[in-house]
Structures are given as C-alpha cells and as structure tokens.
Prior knowledge:
InterPro entries: AsnASE_II, Asp/glu_Ase-like_sf, Asparaginase/glutaminase-like, Asparaginase/glutaminase_AS2, Asparaginase_C, L-asparaginase_C, L-asparaginase_N, L-asparaginase_N_sf. The protein has helices at 29-33, 58-73, 88-98, 121-132, 218-223, 245-254, 279-284, 295-307, 312-320; strands at 2-10, 15-17, 23-25, 41-51, 78-82, 105-108, 143-146, 149-152, 157-158, 167-168, 176-179, 182-185, 206-210, 229-234, 257-261, 288-289. It is α/β, with parallel strands linked by helices. The strands form 4 sheets. Strands 4-1-5-6-7-8-11-12 form an 8-stranded mixed β-sheet, sandwiched between helices. Strands 13-14-15-16 form a 4-stranded parallel β-sheet, with helices on both faces. α3 (88-98) crosses α8 and α8 (295-307) packs across α9. Aspartic acid binds at residues 11-12, 52-53, 84-86, 109-111.
Amino acid sequence: MKRVAILAMGGTIAMVPAPGGGVVPALGADDLVKALPDLDAAITARTVRTLPSPSIGFADLVALADAVREEIAAGADGIVVTHGTDTIEETAIFLDLTVPGDTPVVVTGAMRPPASPGADGPANLFAAVKVATSEDARGLGVLVVMSDEVHGARFVRKGHTSSTGAFASPGFGPLGLVVEGEPRLRGFPRVGLTVPIGPKVEDIRVGLVTVALGDDGGLLRCAAPAFDGVVLAGLGAGHVPADMVPLVAEVAARIPVVLASRTGSGSVLRQTYGYPGSERDLLDRGLVHAGFLDPAKARVLLHLLLADGADRDRVTEAFDHYR
Ligand code: ASP
C-alpha cells in the first residue's frame, strides 16, 4: 500500500467561521483527512502552518520544503500539501525548485470554505491524493491539483477570484485530469532546475514592479533602493515607456532586474521590437529574460538564486531553463 504524507499550511480549505465574522484558518491536517473516503493508501497528517496564504513568507516555505524532504526521506511515496489558493502558485514553484527527485509533490486547496454549500476542499484533497499515488505523476515536478485538473508548477496561475475553476496554465493547459477518480496524466517532465536554499533566504528582498501606461518609473525609483533584485512585469512582450529606460538601465547596472510580462501568458520576446523601451533595448541593457515564468514565479526563482549568492551569469543561466 502506498504511503502519502499530507502537510497542511492553512488556507480556505482549513477555514471555519470566526466569531467576529468571516472565515479564518483553524483546521489542521488531521481534520482535513477526516473528509477523505477510504482509500487504498496509508495517510499520515502533519500541520506545518495554519495561515491564510497571503501571510505565508519565505521562512514558512523553507519549513514546508524541509517537511517535504523529511517525509520523502522517511519513505513517503507521495506528498500532498494543502494551502491557501492566493499564493499556491508561488509555493508550488518554490517546492519545484527546492525539492529534487521524482516523488510526486501535489499542492491543493479550496475556493469554498468547508462549511459552505458545495465546498470543494474534500474533492480537491481526494484528487490530490490520487495524483500523489500515481506512478505517472513521478518526474513531472511539483503539481497543483484543483477542480480535477493537474497543473505544472511552472505554468499554473490563479485566474479568478472566486470560481472553483480558478486555476489555469495559460498557453499550455493542464498536464492532465482526474477522471472518475483516476489520474490521466499526459504531462512532460519537470524543468529539473534545483536551487539550494541559501543562508540568506529570509533576508533577501526581491521587488515585483508592474509597469503601466504613462509610467515615469516613480514606483521603480522608490522601490529599487530597498531591494536586492527586481522583477519588472513589463507591458506586452516585455516593454517599458521610453522615458523609463534610463532609470531601468541604472537599476539593472546595480542589481539583477528580470524582465517578465504583465500579460499573464506567453514568453517575453527577444528580438522583435527595436524602439527605446522594447525587449531588445532592455535585454541589451542587461536585464535578464524571464522566459515563460510569470512575474510572481520569476520573483521566487530570483529570490532563491540571490539567497544562494548567485551572480548575474548564474541568474541568466537559471532563467534560460524556462525559455
Ligand atoms: N485567501 C485564501 C488563502 O489564500 C484563499 C484560499 O485559500 O482559497 O488563504
């Protein structure tokens, strides 16, 4: 019988009504497991955090990655992490980058709290356990299972505030589905980049700055001095207004600046546009190409690299895995 370790981090899947109104995280892994039907798997449950996911930070992710590695070392055949959906995509890429090996690691959550009609937590947890015990899930990297869809950590995004079908992998689609309780996976293998969790992981600060129409760089100008690196969520295929270019170049000369896109899908381009502020112009000025990583995921990768003392060449090389 396969052994699955369930690690709880909080989120809506673990929330109950609070006396003052609204729902707050309160349930632990043991409580969540009670919602599962009998399964052909030995389940262990461990509560790592009981947090709403907007309050999860890098120290919590380090604790989670340690717990995942411990469970794998102790013989788990698969891991399921329950997590708030707001930042699930960042936690998924963090684990993808820091937990090597082929053991399935599946992150799931819920859009509706347990006490609401049609709560989706139990179905998502069930599907996640099924995927975590599937031989076909081995080697695909960290997965996010929501609404019977199986998404790769490098692609998945939350794209809706409240729908139970809030998750998608724009431009690529899910790596598989759970059909009648059985995983049907057609995904391609993980990228395979692993970054050690460096000693500065709790100190490094990487800013995420979104560029907008008429932007004169005011936000970047204020933000840059406070950060060790910046991800620029550029317009379109990786662009900024011409007036912003001198400032972007100045910041990129001092700290790594990764160029991503605010569009939500597709890769930053490399060689199409030639105007001031275009992707060609910015890459020539030393910005690092984010590849297919969206801004939030690019920020996690840059954070891990800087915490491990990576220089600009290593940062560029790491992002090249996602071209
Ligand atoms: N705000 C919640 C959280 O991320 C949303 C959820 O879990 O669905 O913790």
